[in-house]
Design brief:
MauG/Cytc_peroxidase, about 350 residues, mainly alpha, Cytochrome Bc1 Complex, Chain D, domain 2, 2 domains, 2 strands, Cyt_c-like_dom_sf, about 35% helix, Cytochrome_c_Peroxidase/MauG
């Protein structure tokens, strides 16, 4: 063997080793390793001691999430309105489209980072993640089904009897185990690998561009009071001055019947805005620029308007065109391609 052949073999060997290492890393990213808190995130709110995430429980939860039998006529799944490529929203629809193409009244919120949420839905009417799936399953405009029917359909399938047995030690499908399984899947929908996250964790020598950094400073001065880092929501409910829509959605008032909660809606996370348009609780703004212009010039000085939006000569947040441009550049550092392409979360 001459030196040329030896060199070729060495290069080929290094290439094969490199490929195997790369494949290993990819497999590790897309293989179940349980819930891991990102280093730059706070401690979760969800109590994992009451519902430990296991491989079998997660697999069951994912299967249920994409299962159309949760709906009355077996056509709509959770994944129909919460699409992974759209950060688990129903991209392009102002309000949710459910069974028989019925229209809801609110925009489908993203399913991400729910381990840090204390209340759910735009009005906060559900106080615990394990209870949340009851709402879409039983709502007329969404799945229009009831739990006894759902359980009967699933119990008739050997697949689910086996999966419940593996996850919870019994083939019997109970409300508790059904809800916990769905929670196990949703809790694993963690978005924490955006450019912003890499900058905060000092990973891969990542840094903001000059434009992004300027936008970050604008964000901290004008937006962070409600959209606090690193989740980019404080989980509160606020009236942000939107003129009431045609259905006159009263927001948090529908859950509390407290007059001071009228037209208050949950502060959404600003993560993954590239994938989640349209925006606001009723999807009234098709673009991020529309949202920014609302705060700049369209905030209505209505009863219950959040005090943070009523501090100046006129309600809202003054934003120049340059500020809007720079702010947009920063907000797009919150987009997480790893999250929307994670095969572990995808329908099989």
């Amino acid at each position: 063997m001459n030196r040329k052949h030896l060199t070729v073999l060495v290069i080929l060997g290094l290439f094969i080793i490199s490929c195997k290492k790369s494949d290993f890393l990819i497999d590790r990213i897309e293989t179940f390793i349980g819930f891991k808190k990102p280093d730059n995130f706070p401690e979760p709110v969800y109590d994992f001691t009451l519902n430990k995430i296991t491989n079998a429980g997660f697999d069951l939860g994912k299967s249920l999430f994409y299962e159309v039998r949760l709906s009355r006529n077996n056509t709509i799944s959770c994944g129909s309105c919460h699409i992974q490529s759209s950060a688990f929203t129903q991209h392009g629809h102002d309000v949710s489209h459910g069974i028989d193409d019925r229209l809801g009244t609110r925009n489908s919120p993203p399913i991400m980072n729910l381990a840090w949420s204390k209340a759910f839905n735009w009005d906060g009417g559900v106080p615990h993640l394990d209870l949340q799936p009851i709402v879409p399953i039983t709502t007329h405009e969404e799945m229009d089904e009831n739990l006894p029917n759902v359980f009967a359909k699933l119990q008739a399938m050997p697949k689910y009897r086996s999966m419940f047995k593996a996850a919870f030690g019994t083939e019997e499908i109970t409300t508790s185990n059904f809800m916990k399984a769905l929670s196990q899947f949703m809790l694993m929908c963690v978005s924490s690998n955006s450019k912003y996250d890499k900058v905060m964790r000092n990973e891969e020598n990542t840094s903001f561009t000059e434009e992004e950094l300027e936008g970050y400073n604008i964000f901290k001065g004008k937006c962070a009071s409600c959209h606090s880092e690193p989740l980019f929501t404080d989980g509160s409910f606020r009236n942000n001055g939107l003129v009431p829509n045609a259905v006159n959605d009263l927001g948090q008032y529908t859950a509390t019947l407290n007059e001071t909660d009228k037209y208050k809606f949950k502060v959404p996370s600003l993560r993954n805005l590239r994938y989640t348009a349209p925006f606001m609780h009723d999807g009234r703004f098709l673009t991020l620029n529309g949202v920014l212009e609302h705060y700049n010039s369209e905030v209505s000085n209505m009863v219950n308007l959040d005090p943070l939006l009523n501090k100046g000569a006129k309600p809202g947040i003054t934003l120049s065109e340059r500020e809007k441009s720079r702010l947009t550049a920063f907000l797009f550092t919150l987009n997480d391609e790893t999250f929307i392409n994670n095969k572990l979360l995808a329908e099989q």
